[in-house]
User: What shape does this take?
Amino acid sequence: MNKAFGKVWMIAIYVFLYLPIITLVIYSFNDSPLVTVWSHASVRWYISLANDDVLISALGLSLKISFLSALISVFFGTFTAFALHRYKRFMGRTLLSSMASSPLVMPDVIVGLSLLLMLVSLQHWLGFPERGLFTILLGHSLLGTAYATVVISSRLREMDGKLDEAAMDLGCQPFQVFKLVTLPLLLPAMVSAFLLTFTLSFDDVVLSSFLSGPGYSTLPMVIFSRARLGLNPSINAIATVTITVVTIAVIASSFYQSRAERKRKLEVAQAYSDANQ
Amino acid sequence: MSKILSYLRSYRHGRQFVISVPYVWFILLALVPLMIVLKISLSEMEDTSVSSMISWVQGWPTIKLSFGSYIFLTTDPLYFQTYMSSIKYALITTVICLIIGFPFSYFMARSPKHLQPMLLMLIMLPFWTSFLLRIYAWKTLLVNNGVINNMLIALGIIQDPLPMMNTPFSLVIGMVYSYLPFMILPLYSNLSKLDLRFLEAAADLGTSPFKAFWLVTIPLSKAGIIAGSMLVFIPAVGEYVIPELLGGPDTLMIGRVLWDEFFSNNDWPMASAVAVVMILLILLPMALFNKYQSDQAEVKA
Assistant: This one.
């Protein structure tokens, strides 16, 4: 296939991907209450956003849930990736790996329904948990663990096992090997797993709707209920704010990661040259 | 505390601990819930709660299964139609994603090496921004007095707005838009590893570029094509948000039916039965296929 065609094709796809986002940003500065009719530029929707108590409390709840569920996901994801990657043979390994990937392949509605029915049965038997922050957190953490496992496993796979062996030859206990060698090398992957699970949780609407109770609406739930009713200029303003924040975060994290990678390579090179002297 | 730590420091106990933590986590949150869905799908709905499966007849526990929900599922043609139309829209989405995603991934893998990380990040960036907001954005573009119609009318191409919103067209656009990165990423990682010497060999042997593409590139990228298609097809079948925001009355999707059974009709056994059939219909064939593939790989090795 020829080069000119390739360029046109790629540009067309990028336009397709970015056109809706750019439109939202432009129309967020539209003064008219009719979303698609341009009157003149203003920031009135940002002002109304700042005074929207429902949105602000939903944002607070979402941030809390995303932060906690990302922490929990990275914790369990690291364990899962380790169990699957470091121990090749143990009873029920296939079961664990299929359970760990089930939230990734199962449609959200099924994951939400099954978790909710379990929590309702639990409540029937034990009297807890109440539906609310805790139950949403459980759902997000389950999904997040599955994604964190994928990210951390792929890092473990490309890591050099010889470093661990060297540490063990030098007399390290398995626990020390993990703390002194594996964990520092794994940290960048854990950071990207945290960012990924944070955004997934921050974006989720289906699981949250199944698992939340009265009085617990996350930001996507509020946006979804408003978007269902029709076009709403305040959503454009929310979109612009989140797009800005996310873009900055993604660029900053890719910068951080490439710097960490460079630093690691430098250290390795330094160690080699020290050893050869 | 120090006792526990020293216990865990031994290799064998440490290993048991590392394996059992995720095991307990996933059994409690992934396996048990599915078992409960299966159980509830076989129960009856009473006034406020689901009937218990085990009843006591003359002092003996008796298991009572109710297939009422499944029977209703097969007798009401609406469910069958909905499953079929979900599969239809998911297939259309997968095929379109493949048709536009394959050349894209191909050219991205062939573009200058130093540009590739940036091109990849430009694909990932929309993926990091809210999915819900991006779907909502299509509404602004597609409605009757929306941006696209306004522009076409202003340019004099059309007189009356094209009815694009709440049609199969808007549904498919939204689905292709959200799932395209899931097709591009596995295809790109597959195609960027493609050994170009195979293509050179084909050219040396006198194959035309088009034929070489068809006979060499496509078969070698089979793994990427399959992975991408599965990543798009499976979630697309169960999609709820996109049909709710962009679909119309004639775009039935099974995710919406499950949602309505649960939230509007409060019929838990029916919602569970819909979920169980959905799992059997899409996930079982995929699991069997995966097993077949890994068996094949073992045979080759």
